[in-house]
Design goal:
The complex is a heterodimer of chains A (178) and B (174). Chain A is mostly helical. Chain A contains 9 helices and 3 strands. In chain A, helix 4 packs across helix 6 and helix 6 packs antiparallel against helix 7. Chain B has 2 domains: 50 residues, Monooxygenase (Up-down Bundle), CATH 1.20.1280; 122 residues, no CATH class. Chain B contains 8 helices and 2 strands. Classes of the chains: A mainly alpha (178), B mainly alpha (174). Chains A and B meet through helix 6, helix 7, helix 8 and helix 9 of A and helix 1, helix 2, helix 3, helix 4 and strand 1 of B.
Chain lengths: 178, 174
């Protein structure tokens, strides 16, 4: 088995080389380094390993499973040359500014609508800010404008608040209109 | 899918917070009613989650909870911008009146008007409408809610409103 080492970690040629990534269900993904390093976690591993990186034997990802990683890779492929996103918030309300998504991104989330939580978890672990914050925004979009009952139903959350507790929350939220 | 497996409570708080930061205060209050877990997360992270606009305050409710400062803020006027009385001053004064005093007021509103003029004259906030107009709104509000106001209570209420301007609620005091 040929062992390649990752010399000159920032060179453009390296981005064209393949690296094998193994998910926790033992699936191997052969990925261009330029795509894989959209994930800061993977990028750090590549950089830390430096010369000792064995590109063919792969990088293990114990916290991500194959089906989700496949979806994440789709995102990475599309965003391999994308600039860093900027997370901004309203200085007064602390409310986060909403990102404008491209048609591709909208379609991506439409396609994987039922996997938003998994995507958020994976993107968080893999440190892919664009995917992470965009997924969070998508989840927020789904929460916004819904009643507590609808939110519970949508996410399968059990209603474990007593009527007294709800009354107390309503009382503290003095402007609440529901 | 987490919802189907009922595993949503395993979602790290960090992620839930990052989602909630995209919401406004109205949506967050609904989230508090979703479950015990969500309510606690929002309560514990209130300091970094979005706040409520002071302009959204309503006279229909009054404060019993001294933590209300956590939930709103006053917007600093940017340079050259005048703050409309209705958006900021009025709810603030209502808030003060109804929050601080459970009130006995009836007469001598001259002092109240004087105080309002003082606020109008302050350099920090240009109050565009007249003090008498505010006075009318304030008194009719009191009438509507059958809150009798004494002049000294008015005076104290307005002083505290003025204090709020010095240290807007929700913003960290230096």
């Amino acid at each position: 088995m040929a062992t390649e080492s990752a010399n000159g970690v920032s060179s453009p040629e390296l981005n064209e080389r393949d690296v094998v990534i193994t998910t926790n269900d033992n699936r191997n993904f052969t990925v261009k380094i330029g795509v894989a390093r959209v994930s800061k976690t993977i990028n750090n591993m590549i950089q830390d390993l430096g010369e000792s990186l064995d590109l063919s034997s792969g990088i293990p990802l114990p916290n991500v499973d194959g089906p989700i990683f496949e979806k994440v890779l789709e995102w990475c492929e599309e965003h391999k040359n994308a600039p860093e996103i900027k997370v901004e918030q309203d200085p007064h309300t602390r409310e986060r500014k909403w990102f404008t998504m491209t048609e591709w991104e909208e379609e991506y989330f439409r396609k994987f609508l039922s996997h938003l939580w998994d995507l958020a978890m994976a993107a968080n672990y893999l440190e892919i800010p664009s995917l992470y914050y965009y997924t969070c925004q998508k989840l927020a979009e789904r929460i916004k404008g819904r009643t507590p009952e609808q939110i519970r139903e949508m996410f399968g959350i059990e209603d474990d608040l007593t009527e007294e507790e709800k009354a107390e929350i309503r009382r503290t939220n003095v402007w609440c209109t529901y | 899918m987490y919802s189907k497996l009922g595993l949503i409570n395993l979602i790290p708080v960090e992620i839930l917070c990052d989602i909630m930061k995209f919401l406004d205060r109205n949506a967050l209050e609904k989230c508090q009613l979703v479950s015990h877990h969500w309510n606690i997360i929002i309560a514990q992270n209130a300091f970094q989650l979005p706040l409520r606009l002071l302009g959204e305050l309503s006279i229909l409710h009054y404060f019993e909870n001294s933590d209300f400062r956590t939930y709103f803020y006053t917007q600093e006027p940017s340079e050259g911008q005048s703050v409309k009385l209705d958006e900021i001053t009025l709810p603030l004064i209502r808030t003060s009146v109804f929050y601080k005093f459970s009130i006995n007021i009836n007469e001598n509103f001259n002092k109240l008007i004087e105080k309002l003029d003082e606020i109008s004259a302050s350099e920090r906030f240009q109050v565009p409408t007249s003090a008498s107009e505010l006075f009318r709104v304030l008194t009719s509000s009191c009438e509507r809610f059958r809150v009798p106001l004494s002049s000294s209570d008015c005076f104290r209420a307005l002083s505290s409103a003025y204090e709020f301007f010095q240290a807007p609620p929700g913003l960290p005091s230096a």
